[in-house]
Specification:
174 residues; mainly alpha; 2 domains; two-stranded antiparallel sheet; binds zinc ion
C-alpha cells in the first residue's frame, strides 16, 4: 500500500470512531473522554486547593517569624542605654527603693551584690520597646520578677512585703 493512502486511511477513516476501534462504540468513547475530563478537573481543583493552603501556611509561618523577630528586636537593650538608665535612676529600684548606695552604707561593696535590672516600663508584649530610654527603668531583680509583663509599678508596690529598701526596720540591725 502507498504510504500516503495508508495515513489517509488511518486519519481520514470515518469508521475510526464508529466501529473501527476494535468494536468500541462512539458513545463509550465519549463517555470515557468525559469521565477523564471530569477526573482531570477534580485533580486540578484538589491540586490548586492544596497549593493555596500550603501558600497560606507559609505566609502564616513567615508572619509569625516576623513577629518573633520584632519582639526580640524590641526586647533588646543596649548596654550603654542600660548603664545610662542606672545612672539616671541613681542605681535605685524604682519600686521598692533599695539602692546600691543604701547597701554600701552597711558595708562598702555590698551594693555590688544587688542585682539591678533595666526593665521595660511598658512591656514588650504590650508594645513597649527597649530602644526608648524613657521606657526603661532601674529595678531590683525581686521587683522585676513580680512586675513581669503585665503589672505596673504601683501594682507591684501594693504586693510587696519586703519594705522600702528591703531593710526598713533598722531595729534588726545593731
Ligand atoms: Zn525593688
Amino acid at each position: 500500500m502507498h504510504k500516503l493512502s495508508y495515513i489517509n486511511r488511518i486519519l481520514g477513516s470515518e469508521d475510526l470512531f464508529s466501529d473501527g476501534l476494535n468494536g468500541v462504540s462512539h458513545d463509550t468513547l465519549s463517555f470515557a473522554v468525559a469521565a477523564l475530563a471530569i477526573l482531570l478537573a477534580v485533580v486540578l481543583v484538589v491540586l490548586i486547593s492544596v497549593a493555596f493552603r500550603y501558600r497560606r501556611q507559609q505566609k502564616n509561618i513567615f508572619r509569625q517569624e516576623q513577629m518573633q523577630m520584632e519582639v526580640a528586636r524590641r526586647r533588646r537593650i543596649r548596654v550603654s542605654d542600660k548603664n545610662e538608665v542606672f545612672e539616671r535612676d541613681n542605681y535605685t529600684c524604682q519600686i521598692c527603693g533599695i539602692s546600691k548606695d543604701y547597701l554600701d552604707s552597711f558595708c562598702p561593696g555590698l551594693g555590688d551584690y544587688l542585682l539591678l535590672e533595666a526593665d521595660h516600663i511598658r512591656s514588650v508584649s504590650q508594645g513597649g520597646t527597649g530602644r526608648d530610654i524613657d521606657n526603661l527603668q532601674c529595678l531590683c531583680w525581686r521587683c522585676n520578677r513580680k512586675k513581669g509583663g503585665r503589672r505596673t509599678n504601683d501594682e507591684v508596690r501594693d504586693m510587696i512585703d519586703y519594705g522600702i529598701g528591703y531593710l526598713q526596720d533598722e531595729g534588726d540591725w545593731d
